[in-house]
Structures are given as C-alpha cells and as structure tokens.
Sequence to fold (302 residues):
Amino acid sequence: MSTSLALILSKIQNKNPGHFSKLEANLAALDAEYTIAANAFFDKYFSYLNRNNIELDFGIDCYLHMISDMLEERLKFIREGSYSNSSFDDVEKRIYGNLEIMTYHMHGLVLAQFLWFDQYERLVFFSRNLKKHHNNIQKYLEIGGGHGLYINEAISVIPETPQFDLVDISQSSLDLAKGIVNNDKINYYLKNIFDFSDDEKYDFITMGEVLEHVEDPLSLLQKIADLLSEDGVCYITTPINAPMIDHIYLFNNEDEIRDLFRKANFEIIEEQIVISEKITEKQAAKRKVPVMYAAFIKKNKK
Fold:
C-alpha cells in the first residue's frame, strides 16, 4: 500500500517531472524519521480532504500553482531587487481577502512543509528544543498558524500545557488548521495580534514566517514582547531573499534579523540557518537564493 508521501510525490512526478526530480534530489538524504513525520502529517491532510470531499489532485494542483507563482516572483526579484509588495493593505485586499487565491496558496503550503527539506529542518529544530528552552509552559500562543503544523507538534511535545491559542487574520487559514489538526485543545481566534490585550501573557509564543508579511516587523516584535511572560520564550522563523505573492518586508541577510531582535529588546538563545538549495552560503548570497532563519529568543533583562 502506497504511503501518503509516496502518493503525493508520484502525482507530482506525473504532473511536473522536472520539479519532482528536484524534490527527489533534495529529499534523498533525509532519514526514516522524516518519512514517519511526513506521513503522519500528510495522513491528517488526507483525512481533511476526505471529510470535505476534496480530491488529492486538487492539493497537488494548488502546490504546483504556488510553485509557478514563486518562480514568477523570483524572476521579478532578481530583476528588480525588491519584493512585488510594499503595502499590507494591498496584500490583504489582493491575497488574504481573495478566497480563491488563499485556498490554493494555503493548500500549496501544506505540501511544502515536508516536500521542502529546509521547512522540515526548521520543524525538527523547533520540536527538539521546545521543551529544553521552556519546560513549564502554561499558556502557548501561535501567531499566523496557517496549516497548523507547529501547534500540532507543540501539543505532541508539551501535552501537559493546559492552554493552546492560535490567532490568524485569515479565515481560510484558520479553517485549514482546524480541519487538519482536528484537536479540541486549541482555541482559534480570527483577529489581528495587535488587538490582543497586553494583559494576556503567554509562556511560549511561536510565530513562523510572519515577519516578512508586515510593513513594520519591529512593531510586531514589540507587541510579542508585551504578550510574553517575564521568563517566556518565543520561537520565530523568517526567510531571507524569499519573494512570494504575499511577502512585503525583505531581509537581505541574517544580521538584519538579529539587529531587529536587539531593537525589540530580545536576546537570541539559539538559532538555525538553512539554505533552501544544496549550495554554499557564498553561492546563496551571490545568487540571492532563499535562506531560512529560525531562532528561540527571550526578553533581554539587562
């Protein structure tokens, strides 16, 4: 019987052999732990599709549509040196407020979580270090939870935590996360994180790939600091040189992210940097290939 991962790869091979070859090469070095994790998450996705009478081919087509969008955005980025978007309001109207676009984009991102090795490596970094960096989490918050992968992992790693909250500005994203994770332990909020009261304190906050979606990432980090308990920890990821249809803020290198943390009065506990292609750091910088940055941070009390 074919596994969920094998079936997804087989369908991609039939629809886009060139992209399949790239995926096959990038995933070849990953071990059995990856296969187990990928199948576990994709099984949840398959269950979601079945409950909603959606064919897997729809998800595959969404993913390949997203890949096509990324190629077009990358060509513009290399040519112009900037992202296509500069205004959150414009992106909100054009992307987040467009059900058709958000649907295919979010379904595409679901598959990317395990088809892109750099995404998987960040999940492993998160999972292996979550409890180490904060072992007494009473309240967990996820900002921009999207497809629910990280909060699903958090529930697995810290099941004793009594409160899990997920906030997103997109109803499409919340519906997808609810459908895939399918866990009553999670409280879902359709709202802007800036509308959260500062009196609401969390011991751990996860924010995966959100900073690049806003015009003023410093203000967002300062809001997170207000919501974080005094000894709380935050896990943040954001890409460098990674144009997509809804990206606004361009980080050119890792130091720009580190400087932003310092300005928001955070200190880095531990960080991880993964290049999205199998090339050197020098080659990535020269070709402006996307680099994925992740870090556990806490308030600087000095």
Notes: DSSP finds twelve helices and seven strands in the chain. The beta strands are 139-143, 163-168, 186-190, 202-208, 228-240, 266-275, 291-299. Residues 147 and 207 are 13 Å apart (CA to CA). The two ends are 57 Å apart (CA to CA).
